[in-house]
Amino acid sequence: MSDFGSQEPQKDKKKPKGDGPQFPFGGPKLPDMKPFGGWKFSLLYIFILVVGMSLFNYVFLNRVNPTIDFSEFKTKIASGEIKRVEMTESYFTGYTSAVPRRTPVSRSPLRGSSASSEETMYRTVPINDPDLIKLMDEKKIAYYAVSREGSTILNIIFSWVLPIAFLFFIWRFFMKRLGNMGGNVLSVGQNRAVIVAEGDIVTRFNDVAGVDEAKEELVEVVDFLKNPRKYTDIGGKIPKGVLLVGPPGTGKTLLARAVAGEAEVSFFRMSGADFVEMFVGVGAARVRDLFKQARDKAPCIIFIDELDAIGKSRINNIAGGNDEREQTLNQLLVEMDGFDATSGLIILAATNRPDVLDPALLRPGRFDRQVLVDRPDLKGREAILKIHSGAVKLSPQVDLTAVARITSGFSGADLANIVNEAALLAVRAGRQLVAQKDFDEAIEKTVAGLQKKTRILKPEERRLTAYHEAGHALVAAFTPNADPVQKISIIPRGFALGYTLQMPVEDRYTVTQSDLLGKIDILLGGRIAEEMVSGEYSTGAASDLTKATDIARKMITDYGMSGRFRNVALTSRGAGMGGPDRQEPMFQREYAESTQQYVDEEIARLVDQEYGKTEDILKNRRAVLDQVAAALLEKETLDEKEFRALLESA
Ligand code: ADP
Ligand code: MG
Ligand code: ZN
Fold first, then answer.
1. pLDDT in tens, 43-95
2. Could you tell which of 204, 254, 389 is best to mutate to test the pocket of ligand 1, judged by most ligand atoms within 8 Å of the CB?
3. Bridge partners of 637?
4. Parallel, antiparallel, or unpaired for β 92-95 and 197-198?
5. Architecture of 391-448 per CATH?
6. Annotated catalytic, 602?
7. Could you say which of 163, 278, 383, 439 is the most buried, measured as most Cβ atoms within 10 Å of its Cβ?
8. pLDDT tens-digit profile of 264-315?
9. Superfamily of domain 451-649 in the CATH hierarchy
10. Which residues line ligand 1 (CB under 6 A)?
């Protein structure tokens, strides 16, 4: 993790432009941890040390005969077998010869091995028995005590040096583990992840495809960086922050890099997660440091990947919140306010969860520009495949358009992966050129993995989806006062098979009854269109129905728009927050059972009434519906203009 930032530049430098295959998409990068073997090795080390120490202990410290009973010891003194007794606090040792080989004091109290080879040695655990001294005096046996201070060097080593060394070793070991796990306890406040600016970025806009709208917006950012005067002379404000929003693998990081490459400025890259540390204040210090460095290097780009890691909304944080993250976020806001837009510093950030971001981040002067980086459509996918297969030797039969056609819903990274996978398959088969069947197999492989993340549609599903979305769009177009349709798409997104995007023309704070009914109509439009072409219902409209029902229920219970309970609110806000994220206020029912029954029936009646109305709208415009659906099947996405053109031609 620590060299996350510094690893990247080298990778990028080595990478020639547009080389798909050598740069397979590897998914999330793992933190820089020692391989698992490291653990095992260290454990073995400790084990050997412990066993070694016990052996040493056993061999050198306890090499004495097993102790004998005190009574036996006494008998041996009485019988005259023991001629000399050495006494310590823990042992009495009896020797069978009278003369010690060495002076007793220099001998280890624990060591019996200093006795000469002919003499035998008996050891016993002492009992406080005054008779023993009397007995020894009687027998004229030499007895003497050896004090503990008389320990030899070896003793000191064993009783002090080794245990301390051992503890030190263990301490070092755990510190190292902790360090490797990311939170280096020893370097609080130090900037562990060294932030380095990357210069000479080779990535260009040409390396990115399928996200033309995003590119258009970013071209302007490049111009800001290159000629800031052009904008400031006229009195314009250069944006400070641009937020790239889109699902993973769609090329957000790539785009940020391309901006730096095109503008030929340095590039500071950090991931939001790098800022969030175990200790409060570290992240904030890191932000300060990053901006200080960047100001010195201006003009340059700061790129904060995964902004949501620090930018999560503080508002919904009822569970106490995370001090460290909040401080880091505050520091980021302070820094963003602090620098002058003419200084040539622009902050790019990427996220796939714009919904959780703190609103403060999106205020003017901060990330006030948002650029959508979406999954590529048919044409985009073909272009991306072309970029990534640039360095790959393709057989002339390979039809990249066909590949693009069956990879609806794939992200740029998925496509890069497919090209790489196909090249590997060709190598494995011993072929010189990548064939179409390699692509087919590669897609199959990728689809299996992708299916968990996003849906891959079968032709019939695609057709139904096209009608479904066309239905939403048409009803929206013919509902007075509804927000205009901005984009229709049948590119799967997560578990949604397609989507119809409506853009409000103006901010609305209050909604009228007819607006709400219109919303229900638009939601029902999808299912009705599906039913018109297939003659039956599918599960595809489940979430539309949920939303429509919710609106209908709210109309009756919250907004007082029902026949019987006109102007009466039937719910009251509960104390807590509920929902999967604990972000929705919980409602409590405060009305009678019979009212509940009325509410249920009224919802059903309302939705049914709207269903009939909407069915008429669509049935009367079957030809347009067919046209829009066909256009969607062909192009996968229709923007506002294309949709309008279809309506007018009909
Ligand atoms: P994100 O940051 O949106 O998750 P990345 O920029 O990291 O996605 O994309 C990962 C890789 O996938 C890129 O390095 C590139 O090889 C490939 N890729 C993704 N999107 C595109 C695209 N629009 N055009 C070309 N290549 C792409
Ligand atoms: Mg990224
Ligand atoms: Zn729908």
1. 677 777 777 777 766 665 555 556 788 888 888 888 888 888 888 777 788 88
2. 254
3. 489
4. unpaired
5. Orthogonal Bundle (1.10)
6. no
7. 439
8. 998 998 888 877 766 667 788 888 888 888 888 878 899 999 898 887 766 6
9. Peptidase M41 (1.20.58.760)
10. 23, 25, 208-211, 246, 248-254, 350, 384, 387, 412-413, 416
